[in-house]
Amino acid sequence: MTERGIEIVYGRWLIEGAPRVLLIDTGAGYKYLDEWKGDLWNAAGIPSPSADSETNEAIAFGYLVAWFLGELIFRQYICRDTERAVIAHFHEWLAGVALPLTKKRRMDVTTIFTTHATLLGRYLCAGSVDFYNNLKNFDVDAEAGKRGIYHRYCIERAAAHSADVFTTVSHITAYESEHLLKRKPDGVLPNGLNVKKFSAVHEFQNLHSHSKDKINDFVRGHFYGHNDFDLENTLYFFTSGRYEYRNKGVDMFIESLARLNHRLKVSGSKTTVVAFIIMPSQTSSLTVEALKGQAVVKSLRDTLESVEKSIGKRLFERCLGWKEGDNMPDEKDLMTNQDRVLIRRRLFAMKRHNLPPIVTHNMINDSEDPILNQLRRVQLFNYPTDRVKVVFHPEFLNSANPVLPLDYDDFVRGTNLGVFPSYYEPWGYTPAECTVMGIPSITTNLAGFGCYMEELIENSADYGIYVVDRRLKGVDDSVNQLTSYMFDFCQKSRRQRINQRNRTERLSDLLDWKRMGLEYVKARQLALRRAYPTSFDAADDFHEAIGHTEQKISRPLSVPGSPRDRTGTMTPGDFASIQEGREGLDTEDYISYKPPTSANGVNANTIPRAGSDDEEEDSIPVPIRPKRQSISLKLGPAPNGHGVGSETKAA
């Protein structure tokens, strides 16, 4: 490939673990692009318009990867290396062009394709479509054509059907893929996090306090002249992610904030909520008001520090010369007229005749921005009487930001609650990141993360994972449920919030790649068995073949009661999915589980509730589902015709 002008760099990725990486210069392959497009049409019937630069990049990368795999297999053949199999795992349609090519060329490669979302699903949900109730009825080709993504959809569908093993990141996405991509996934590979990156051992409460102080500094500047609320009694809520107004549930979040504002005012609550919306949009610059607010507060702080030093110096000298019978130093002796003038000037600069802005940047076409328009519609303008204040920050955060100088991770640590009421969220990293940092979050049962945690933990709200029902409830009922969650959170005392953060942080083990990665081992083992069935004994125990996958979850010190099992120790793939029960999804490695019941119909694995937010110590472990005695694993034929064609039992 190098001889043909394709630059390839091999090295180590400078992250924890230092994985080996091959970097392929796709730009060098553009001279072959027209030839490759013609071959893609002849081989797979996939069109490729010239104006779509993203598709052009995907085609160039796909053909270069297929080229590389072909060279690798040829070298193995020359070296007579027949003991090692080549497993190629592709993620998303952008990397999937090589899949139909490897199948067409009959390469000796075992392939896995994982979709983290479907193209058509994302586009349909962004519009006003009742997606989940009509999923079985969509004319997928017509819908993709209407939205100008038919060629991309063809790549995604071809990748799903060409792989030996097809997987998704959640059960709800598996159900979606079955209808939109027309292939039932073979399994679910949940997303994980590098928990070490976010864990602060026993210091995360201190980190929360430190980060919150920095957010307090921003709030003081942004709301200067209207700082009539107590920061010690102020909660910081936030939502973040790509700017997908409906898919990310921003519409529901803003509507719920308006209702929360009304409920707090009616109840006479002294709690103030500052809600941040962190989503990148088209901007031209920071607003003058945003910059001025920080400058005014900084000027006030600098002046008072200067006056404080001069007063301290005079007080020290005054005390040195004090004799018995002299008067104690008072304000007149300590503050000079110059100090009073300086302070008065800064106080006059704090006067404000307009309301604090709801957005920190000058927006391009702000009259057409959906978030700003809804904020105007519900009249969340940061009035002094409002108990809910709003700050829309249309850029991702970083420590070089002149207004809010915090990296995203540090910002999240300083907040009190993350709110992510997504309508379309195949997994949802944002609430997962909140969990490993000990920040409670709100998600939905239409998000993969929400379904996973709801099925995994009994009473997930007690552990700081609130799940809004957007599947079976109407929009208004879902908004009211979200409002109630936020209102109830506002009623918690500081001690209750600290205890809840402790419990939330202890769930981080459930999201660690050390745990989630076991599902990738299963997927690769299944792919090998399908590609090379004669190399395996059909009677082999599948779980024994991949090793013992049981991992014990650390026991938290403070947990509410009603767990499903006292010793639950499971891997993510062994948990039942809410979609399997409701939608009839029967993926091959994921069988729905129902807890056993006693003779009187009571769940045999539950115990009475024995805890609350006020309790700091409790000996009950995290309530996770117990491990099944056996599961039925069907190693049926793969789309290319290879397979075992038999059923084995896995302990």
TrEMBL record:
Set out the biological process GO terms recorded for this chain's protein.
Answer: glycogen biosynthetic process
EC assignment: 2.4.1.11
Compositional bias segments (type: Polar residues): 595-606
Keyword Transferase carried by entry: yes
Pathway(s) annotated for this protein in UniProt: Glycan biosynthesis; glycogen biosynthesis
What's a single GO MF annotation on this record?
Answer: alpha-1,4-glucan glucosyltransferase (UDP-glucose donor) activity
Q: Which UniProt keywords apply?
A: Glycogen biosynthesis, Glycosyltransferase, Transferase
Q: Region entry Disordered: which residue ranges?
A: 548-651
* Any Pfam family: Glycogen_syn
Matches recorded under Gene3D superfamilies:
6.10.260.10, Glycogen Phosphorylase B
Catalyzed reactions per annotation: [(1->4)-alpha-D-glucosyl](n) + UDP-alpha-D-glucose = [(1->4)-alpha-D-glucosyl](n+1) + UDP + H(+)
The entry's cellular-component GO terms read: cytoplasm
The family line of this record is: Belongs to the glycosyltransferase 3 family.
- The protein's role, per its UniProt record: Transfers the glycosyl residue from UDP-Glc to the non-reducing end of alpha-1,4-glucan.
**What protein name applies here?**
Glycogen [starch] synthase
Organism name? Trichophyton verrucosum (strain HKI 0517)
- Lineage, top ranks: Eukaryota, Fungi, Dikarya, Ascomycota, Pezizomycotina
